[in-house]
Design goal:
Length: 493
Amino acid sequence: MSDHTGRIDTSRRALIAGAAALAGAGLAGPGRAQPGPRRGDELTWMPVWRIGQLIRSRQLSPVEVVDHFLARTQSLNPTVKAFTHVDHEGARAAARAAEDAVMRGGPLGPLHGVPIPFKDHIMVRGMPLSFGRPGEPPRIPDHDDIIVERVRAAGGIVIGKTVMAGPPAMIGAANPYDLTRTAGASSSGSAAAVAAGMVPVAIGSDGGGSTRLPAAYCGIVGLHPTTGRVPGFQSSARRSDLGAIRGWLQRGWSATYGPLARDARDATTLLQVTAGPDWRSMDSFKGPTPDYLRDLDAGVKGMRLAWSADMGFASRYYDAGSPNVIDAVTASARSFESLGARVDDPGLRVDDSHPIFRSIMGGLDTIAGAPARPRGELMDLDDAFDARERLARQYLDLLGRYDVLLTPATPIIAPTIEAWTAWLRQPGFGARYTCLTGPFNTLGFPAVAVPCGFLDGMPLSLQIVGRPDEDAKVMRVARAFEKIYAPTRRPQF
């Protein structure tokens, strides 16, 4: 609809109508938090797919959408500390161009008019890049990374850069559910921004759990796709310097770019937009890109799901509060049976992946010419790759008998900043933090963290793992889970 000037009607009435239509579609109701009475809440918590519908039907303007989330970001960032940079001018210019495209009536992409930020270390043309090292002067890239190009091509509006909680401090964004607690390491800014309603979705990266663990702490969806399905880390290697080569060697085999979203459909939409080969990414997965959305709502009836509380090794890293977390997540996993799936505990016992991961990283560092790390108990590189293959066969044997593997995403709720700071100083932090997520970086398997309730007021999270390139099945299971475990509360902003 439009007013007498021909501009899109972005009135409160249109937004309320959109929220009513959302409820009528069966995606609001018991078990799902309802919009509050404050002005703008309908848009704040509206999923990306619904924002897109309203924009394409001219009931909502990209300018209104971007202005709304820029205002949210400006208001909340001083306390949540999720953004390192917000491009007000560039985002508003892109929003005006997006509105003009709507009015011209041409084809629109699936993210048309949706504001999306990127994790600090992802290259965005003209935006500062500090790699999570606040003491160092930022770089200003002159080109977009591949994933940024794809988001723009789908109509997404790049709104800014989010905090990367990197070493040595690794103190990132605050947790929107309790500002005295952490949002996790690495992709903490992207997760906190989505959880706080500062943006509808964001892009992070996952080298050991860095989308899934901040998502778990913040009560949202975080996806680590099959390694190579979403091209990444390669356009930054246009320079032939040692750091770029080392980064490719280290990250090309284990790390991914992935979406952070408030529901599985939005996360899958971002996966669909960003997946697919690119000649510039030497390790990108070749061949046709699956249709991840086609069977997303097909449910889990008749599926066989394997459950494991610790995969036979991770409990050595658990703390005194972990039993309560594990009990609650176990109960949530069992709830798949109400949807017609079978849930078994096959007594999975596999090797700890962390020594394998560290050994491969250390070996690749040496190949790239970096100073040798202390070897300690690290394996030789050949032995580490052999161990990785044995580990893969252990999981593939299980996933040959079951559709997916279910585990907790983390054995703890988000720690307080004080506890987090102390934890960071302890030996073995990485192994403890990533004990349940790291195996699937070591192997490159798809895995997603999804909300599964609350404990002591803080989010809990279930991890769903699939065979390589079965991301569609993983997200289908995640989508089904939302029917019984949609979040029942939101941060109070």
